Amino acid sequence: xxxxxxxxxxxxxxxxxxxxxxxxxxxxxxxxxxxxxxxxxxxxxxxxxxxxxxxxxxxxxxxxxxxxxxxxxxxxxxxxxxxxxxxxxxxxxxxxxxxxxxxxxxxxxxxxxxxxxxxxxxxxxxxxxxxxxxxxxxxxxxxxxxxxxxxxxxxxxxxxxxxxxxxxxxxxxxxxxxxxxxxxxxxxxxxxxxxxxxxxxxxxxxxxxxxxxxxxxxxxxxxxxxxxxxxxxxxxxxxxxxxxxxxxxxxxxxxxxxxxxxxxxxxxxxxxxxxxxxxxxxxxxxxxxxxxxxxxxxxxxxxxxxxxxxxxxxxxxxxxxxxxxxxxxxxxxxxxxxxxxxxxxxxxxxxxxxxxxxxxxxxxxxxxxxxxxxxxxxxxxxxxxxxxxxxxxxxxxxxxxxxxxxxxxxxxxxxxxxxxxxxxxxxxxxxxxxxxxxxxxxxxxxxxxxxxxxxxxxxxxxxxxxxxxxxxxxxxxxxxxxxxxxxxxxxxxxxxxxxxxxxxxxxxxxxxxxxxxxxxxxxxxxxxxxxxxxxxxxxxxxxxxxxxxxxxxx
Length: 554
What we know:
By secondary structure, this protein is mainly alpha-helical. It folds into 2 domains: 2-278 and 529-550, Serine Threonine Protein Phosphatase 5, Tetratricopeptide repeat (Alpha Horseshoe), CATH 1.25.40.390; 287-422, no CATH class. Helix content is 41%, strand content 8%. The strands form 7 sheets. Strands 1-7 form a two-stranded antiparallel sheet. Strands 2-14 form a two-stranded antiparallel ribbon. Strands 3-4 form a two-stranded antiparallel sheet. β8 and β9 (366-367) form a beta hairpin. The chain is globular and about 70 Å long.
């Protein structure tokens, strides 16, 4: 980690031009000027912008989507060579886990630098408070993601300097529980007690710090860390504050959840994928892996989720996707062998005839009112023989597919008008519906089944499903399983599933039961967390370890 931390010191003050948020202008400085530059709130805010860049670097990578979603019971890859989708990594060959580790600690270091600069700045405390609060929220998120992905990790809150760099580089793993509890207290003080940040939804037009990581993000992170720690009442303090900010879930449209709909009212945190860094356009590449194959041929998956054929010639002038002409998707995209839902997802949790509005945005019967588009078996488009000058778009199943076939991922994930592989959507990272489901879990674990049902029913009702009541469940375990299944349905593809399964302590047994055959082949219990790259273990002088991976020879 030493060399990485030395790099962080040099680059800690690089700015960030956030996706679609043109006001987050970047200010590029080197470490020699940090003590002389951050003198007022505008300059400090410019420095805080640089703290967002590591987050964008993580979420724009489709490989992180594979780690959090494909390594679960809900999605699977059908082609070989996607190492992160199958847990094909180790301490010596960590794949994207190495970038994930570096990016997250780069974010921690930048937040620490800015917190130090805020305290030194000669500005009024009223100006400092929201800047400090934002830095605290961002740092908590970086550490939250570190503990979700790596378990026990080194924890430090001081700015990295030439004097302390070697010491920090040799910090051992600290208990993830101790890390979370320290951050919970810090977030509680900053947000719930001191009210350092305005208590508004993140993207509300009335929020004076709109688009930035504010009180809503802090409450979501604080509440989630409380769930990890079994602090149910404390979790409800954070989620209750979100409830006061966001109000009834019913006021937010389900159809707004599609990634192409940017900065919607329900969102707590979105990660935009279109930005300009140093004069170059930067995009994500997720949609091209969630869309039916474009061109004259589409690879199929057998019942085990294995790719049964190779991708053939690519038609550069076609807007046909799995043999259905879809003008919305256009003819300039390049698609890869796509992720598909598992049998468990499309047969058990959300079958075709379930009446769940989240499953489809359209069916053969027509558009689904306020439909979500999680999965699609077909689309209103054109066949190869249609004369589009006279024929209107009509329902067509994708090639070789029927209503009950394994569907493709739906238009929740598609990028309309995508250029090559450039995904310009906004990824939904945290939504209010997730907080409502987290509240249901916390109420249940406190023994309040009525309140747990009230929260769970908010989500089910919006999706067109019937209400449930405590008597519907044989015991608390069955009730918890229902909440876990609702999390699977509601938050499908939103970078949360693996973390939730690990937190519940059921990841390994769940993928053994429901995961694709290739995942089951390569995964080991140690893969519940990513390995710390061996090069970092070496830099730490042996202070860091991968003992759990070593047990499996990885």
